[in-house]
Sequence to fold (297 residues):
Amino acid sequence: MNRMTRKGWVVGALAALCVAAALCRVPTVQAARHTLLHKTRLHPDDLEIGGDLAGVQKGETRFVTYADLLALPQETYTVSTDTNFVGTVTISGVALEKLPALLGAAPGAAMVIAVCDDSYNAHYPAEYFSAHHPVLVLRVNGLPPAQWPKGSDGSAMGPYMISHPSFTPAFHVLAHTDEPQVPWGVLRLDFRNELEVYAPIVPRNHVHAEAVHDGYAIARQNCFRCHASEGEGGTKSPVQWDDIAGKAVHAPGYFDAYVTAPKKINPDTQMAASPQYDVATLAALRAYFATFKETRP
Fold:
């Protein structure tokens, strides 16, 4: 074998080895991800994982253990602005925006939805990740969930919760200010495509009207957490999107009063009041919800 032939053979062999390594690496990474996901719950504190998962049939749920979550790359912060805590605490956990890749979300399913024990949903689209970098909390002051402080209603804040290193509002829409999504009692994370999640609540017409656009931005962050539309959104409240639209169109006074001070109308409601919403903000919400009523009987 002459020098040139030998050199060509070596180059070819190295190229073949590189290709083989690349081909082997992909399933190895995928396999590593899926070893974290179990078909059945192994421990009471396992976190449910659902939504769009690579290689998992749609609608199926997987589970990841607390110990496996602790083994993922951790971030630790001293937090003083989280309203769930009194004073300053140290939180440790996994960056929420990294979990879709770490746990094998399907391509395009980068949105995370945190589902709580009361069916409240917190939505984390790309713009929220970019602005706030939320964390799936695993330890508070070095302690596991069973030893966390109690929530505002006296119940346990575990098994999981979401917090931030810090929070500065990223936007203001009329009298609505960007709000921190810091739920506790988190049982499940869904990885989804955000366009598909928001599709049922996109304004049905008058999309270019400024008031409708403003109302949509407010409702998407505020109302969608507890009220569902076509299977998307939270189900903490049994009142559906179309029902809200009906009130906005046919009983605007009632709509405004309920949004700003719901307990004055229904003392048993769990809906949070928004007394800061002024006339323009309420009008924008009604204009937005009216687009749904106009396209339905």
User: Anything to note?
Assistant: The longest strand covers residues 184-192. The chain has two domains: 47-192, 203-293. The CA atoms of residues 113 and 123 lie 5 Å apart.
